[in-house]
Fold each of these.
Amino acid sequence: MKRGMNKFFSILLVLCMLISMIPMAVSAATPATLYLKPNSNWLSDGARFAAYFFGNGESWASMTDADGDGVYECAVPSGFNSVIFCRMNPGSSTNNWNNKWNQTSDLTIPSNGNNCYTVAAGTWDAGGGSWSKISTTPSEPVAVDYYL
């Protein structure tokens, strides 16, 4: 019986060693969030901001600036890869085209890590802007190989 148990544990040890040699890629998951930096034109008149997602149906999301840093954010609904950022009438909390004051062009949500759209200075509707990356963690998450 003892010999049989030794064989079992030896085989188990060999299997564990083999499995430990297989690298496993692990990457930190971050929430799908987009950020908006409005220009001074867009910030006037107490405007609020919303994002209109399209391409897989349509969905609106209100944008908030909870920390007061001038950068607005919202979660990206699952399955969408296109967005229009909108400057909205603050007199209504309903997100729809009737309450929209200004908007960006149709934008493709970048897949390269850029998550913040900055509305170009001096523009109103469909003006220029650019994407950049805002880090939400002290250090950027990276893919790491772990060996057991």
Note: The CA atoms of residues 40 and 108 lie 24 Å apart.
Amino acid sequence: MKLSIIIPVYNEEKTILRVINKVKNQKIGRLKKEIIVIDDFSKDHTKKILLKLNSKNIKIFFHQKNKGKGAAIRTGLKHTTGDIILIQDADLEYNPQEYPKLIKPILQGQSKVVYGSRIEAIRKKIENMYKLHYLGNVFLTLMTNTLYGSKITDMETGYKVFKKEVIKGMRLRAKRFDFEPEITAKILKRGYKIKEIPIDFMGRKFKEGKKITWVDGIKALGYLIRYRFSD
């Protein structure tokens, strides 16, 4: 079996090499590893850094204009050849050391979809994070559970892992951070249960490069409602 790791990137010159190295060096048992990096028209030195990479084990694609995180992930999905797909942000908020426990339920046949839940980790470090982000995520997750009958704790997590068959034929439209509510809604509507695994999380602040805002939260709510009644 093969694990396809999609890394959407936008203006992450300070972290992209460290993230890629962590992903490359992380052991995942007997699974083969496919790394797919999509630069979403970065304005800093990210593109130059990626162009200098010389690795046969990494597929790198460049958008010719900025389209958003969701669009970058959709580009990555078109080029995956693995049996299992994992989304990895290009900052250092999520640690690839979590891979073994995230893919374990899928390998053992317990679930076809696994989310890494940050809730426990966030609560322990809440003083270092934007409380508005935390409360927004709690609200959006509550709305997800209400609308789709699920029992998850962290809909907005960046660590989403699933078998490729789960999204086969799925029409994804997301361009920005709407990828999270859209794919969650459509996974649940297809009848899949999401298994959550607690993960560690090192949240960044805006001055450190964080990009999601309260506006994206309002839009996420709209998408959750929209996809409950349409495709």
Note: Residues 170 and 181 are 14 Å apart (CA to CA).
Amino acid sequence: MKSLNTLTASMLALACLGSGAASAQTEWLAGTTVRMGYTHVAPNSSATEATGPLLPGPPSGVSLKVDNQSTLFFSLARDIHPNVEVELALGLPPTHDVQAQLSPALPAHIQNLNGAVIAKVRQIAPTLFVNYKFGEASSAFRPFVGVGVNYTNFDKRESTAL
């Protein structure tokens, strides 16, 4: 985790350095792009109805839903060819709420928990992309396509008190 915080600080320092000194850009920064922005993380994750030895019989009527989250995004991209770049995408890790989704068939005293946040989890998901950029390097508009490899880790998991 300390290495991620160090990397985050380094990326922000590079962004400040690159934005303020374009005319004094050193050779090692040539072909390097720092991007910052705001992104929306939509995990599209849920769980089917819980079953198990303590929940015998038909489906329990209890499932989970993970909420979307928005966060600060930044990346460092390096040109390896006029039309190809390698990009490391990071961001401030978002914390997702996990909500209980309950069947209306459950008793009223349990229905009070429907939609309640029962857990929180932080998502760390660095991604390495290879992007192909169309057009000439001097073009103002350069659409691109990319393919990437992602490693997602969930940490700081905590259950909420109900």
Note: Residues 17 and 25 are 9 Å apart (CA to CA).
